[in-house]
Amino acid sequence: MSAASAVLVIAAADSSGGAGLTRDAQTLGELHVALCCAVTAVTVQTDTELRATHQVPAQVVRAQIRAALDSGQIGAIKIGMLGTAATVRAVAESLPPRERLPIVLDPVLRASSGGTLLERDAVALLRELLLPRVSLVTPNIVEAAALLGDEATRDSMIGEASLRSQLQRLLALGAAAVLIKGGHRGEGEEVIDTLLAHGGPPVRIAVPRVCGTRRGTGCSLSSVIAARLAAGDSLIDACTVAQRYVAEALRAEATGAERPSLR
Ligand code: PLP
Fold first, then answer.
1. 200-210, pLDDT tens digit by residue?
2. Fewer CB within 10 Å of terminal CB in the chain, N or C?
3. Mutation pick for ligand 1 pocket among 40, 219, 220, 253 (CB with most ligand atoms within 8 Å)
4. What confidence category does residue 112 fall into, taking pLDDT thresholds of 50, 70 and 90?
5. Which residue has the CA at smallest separation from atom 9 of ligand 1?
6. pLDDT digits (tens, 9 = 90+) for 157-183
7. Please, where are the H alpha helices in the chain?
8. What is the C-alpha to C-alpha distance for residues 19 and 80, in angstroms, rounded to an integer?
9. Of 14, 126, 221, 224, which is best to mutate to test ligand 1, by the most ligand atoms within 8 angstroms of its C-beta?
10. CA distance linking residue 76 with residue 33, whole number of Å
11. What is the pLDDT of residues 37-49, one digit of tens each?
12. What pLDDT is attached to residue 99?
């Protein structure tokens, strides 16, 4: 492992292998990036059902994070499923300053099968304690609305003005930057993710839409972003590479094609 290039993944195991830490490990492995992990929960899932969640005690999550940071190998942190308010608090209190290490938060709320992955009372705590500590938060538009307490819109209905308002209001909650993912938005020929950082205009990052489904795309996206930030990429470059990775993964899943390497 070269100095400070590993990613610390703070996330939950998904027994089905489709999402969560399992998907993060696969993604980082494909990029040849080492990872340390802090397991927040063990979930029992199939691709269509969340059967059970077993939370890891918060003090064990804290200890895993401390041990990973003590290794001196961590170049960025990715946060995925947290599960409970106690874990949100433990993670928030264990993070180094984002000026020292880039921290990417995928605000995981639900599985695509419909199961809850963050308890309702933990959402407010995530907003108050965690958002102000992260370099980037990566909601899809459903998660963005939930974090802001907005009425849930049908995904495809959100317009450009609402999107900009959501970006600005999320930024005001304290994250250094916000990437709202466009995958669930509309049926256009392109997927457009929109990035807003303090002091800059919104940046649209687009890729041709790939028709297909794959679990854990949000997990992969945030892992690739963290890996690229650890390698020294700018935020825009990291988000662009990650979007391309997800599109290629979707294409490979849809066609069974061999995946071209990223770099
Ligand atoms: N399960 C776990 C443990 C996750 O961390 C996530 C997302 O991060 C999901 C499920 C959701 O993935 P999907 O939308 O593919 O169900």
1. 999 999 999 98
2. C
3. 219
4. confident
5. 111
6. 678 888 999 999 999 999 999 999 998
7. 20-30, 58-70, 85-94, 120-125, 141-148, 160-172, 217-230, 235-255
8. 10
9. 14
10. 11
11. 999 999 999 989 9
12. 97
**Domain architecture of the chain: domains with CATH:** 3-255 (3.40.1190.20)
> Rounded to the nearest 5 degrees, what angle is found at the Cα of 124, between the Cα atoms of 222 and 138?
15
Computed over every residue of the chain, the mean pLDDT equals 92
Close Cβ partners of 146 (under 8 Å, ≥ 6 residues apart): 109, 123, 152
Answer whether 24's CB lies under 8 Å from 35's CB: yes
pLDDT-derived band at 1 (thresholds 50, 70, 90) equals: very low
Q: Measured in angstroms, how far is the CA atom of residue 19 from the centroid of ligand 1?
A: 5
- Counted residue by residue, the chain has a size of 263
DSSP one-letter code for 181: B
pLDDT value at 189 more than 80 = yes
